[in-house]
Amino acid sequence: MDTSDLCTIPAGMSPDGVYNFVNPPSLGPAVVAVGVVLCVISTAFSAGRLYITRNKMHSADYFTLLACLTNIAYTGVICAQYKFYRHSWDIPICWYTGDALKLPFVQTVLFSPAFFLPKAAIFLLYRQLFAVQRRTRIAINFGLLITLLVYLSNIPLAAVYLAPRAGQSWDSLLLSLQANSHPFALAGAVQSAVGTVMDFYIFFLPLPIIFRLKLPAGRRLQLVGIFSTAFLGVGASVVSLAFKIENFSTTDSAWLAGITSMTSLIETNIAIIVGCMPAFAQFTTTTISRSAFFKSLRSRLLGSRGQSGKSKSSSKGSGSQAKTPTLVTFGGNQTPRRKNYLELSDTALLKSQGDTMLDNPAEELHEMQIRPSSTHRTAEQDV
């Protein structure tokens, strides 16, 4: 059959017999908007974290860097398929060629590092912060191992179901793709289900440790709030799982592909943001809020109120030198300068910290930082 004839035949059966190849409803613009906006935000969070940790980078920081770069590539591949995110009956058959199958294959391969790296960075951050007891380290390492096994499986799945056999062309894959769609969808649903369980695991894992800290209730809730951003990723994972299950009975797989791609972008970017949250919170308080631009902007917005506040503080400190608190950041270069960061001993983590209350929860994490001694093993040493 002539290719021009194929361009007049819809790839799916319309429920009302109407199809539109010119200006149909499409999820393409929404997928591109969500992907670009979230990618910019997660990249900014990653940059803030890496700026703070630039003096002493740990495994979690390197994983975050790789996750950010992979996420940019993953977002680009998904956005490049924007024209396919419409109803199946609004797509002409001639669009489905061997070349059109290459991008879904690359997307499936990139799925593994795009999902594993940011979640591995979260587990490694937990290990730096909370692995002061053996059972906590075991729980974190268990989550890390299961996450690796779950998402690593996507690479052989892509090789089996989305790539041509040796010596065959990509066009030959068009004939077998429909037959292989059901087992591939089943494998994807199982993987998504296990991934959802692991997202809940990531969300709940640090909460018992945080609640054991002897802090005022308000301060403890602020710390919980920093790590509870992981719940956004849980929501995206649950929605993605629901639509992957629906994919078994639908005849509109192209539209569902747009929805699941959007939820995948939300999940990967949220995972990066969650892993960067503690360091980025410190970045905003020690770098952004103290920058000349921010101070100038604040003085312009507050006007005379800002000036009156300054005069009050200056009059308060007259006759004696104001004492400036020293903050230790996530690898930042504030004084005193330390090479290591996030070094926690079991006593530092679990004993009362009511003697020194700070202005924000990110600084609370840094007050748990102590120097290694002969009587305390640090989490970094235990690793």
Structure description:
With 383 residues, the chain is mainly α. The protein is built from 16 helices and no strands. It has helices at residues 3-6, 28-52, 59-79, 102-130, 134-152, 154-161, 173-204, 207-212, 217-227, 230-246, 253-288, 292-302, 304-316, 346-350, 361-367, 379-382.
Keywords:
Rhopdopsin 7-helix transmembrane proteins, 383 residues, mainly alpha, disordered C terminus
Q: What would the average pLDDT be, to the nearest integer?
A: 75
- The proportion of residues forming helix, as a percent range, comes to 55-70%
Q: How would you sum up the global shape? A: elongated
Name the CATH class: Mainly Alpha
End-to-end separation in angstroms reads 64 Å
Could you say how many structural domains there are in total? 1
Order of helices and strands: HHHHHHHHHHHHHHHH
Report the biggest beta sheet as strand number plus sense, adding barrel if it closes.
Answer: none
Number of strands: 0
CATH-derived topology = Rhopdopsin 7-helix transmembrane proteins
Alpha plus pi helix count: 16
Segments where pLDDT lies below 50 for 5+ residues?
317-364, 366-383
Supply the CATH architecture. Up-down Bundle
Cα-atom radius of gyration = 25 Å
As a percent range, the share of strand residues is under 5%
